[in-house]
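dumping this here before i forget
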Amino acid sequence: MTERGPEQASDAPAAQNLDYRVAHLHERFAQGPLGELGVRVEVHGDAVLISGTVPSVHCRDEIERVARQALSGHPVHCDLVVAEPSSPDHAEELA
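structure:
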């Protein structure tokens, strides 16, 4: 039989709590006004990584703000890329 120390026993509920909070946050991103299904939220130890592509700087900033608020007490790293939906600056030449 394996005995667990007090620090191991207390880490399990904290990890489950973080997993629950991350799942809720991902659901919030998918269903909320941002509607960002392409945003990934992953747990890495005690930290959370948010990655993906978003359509605007405003969207990126709002996702980061919501994530930091929802996951307060945990380090949040954002690796969100803003897609530049600009029109081409020259005509495409076909051969």
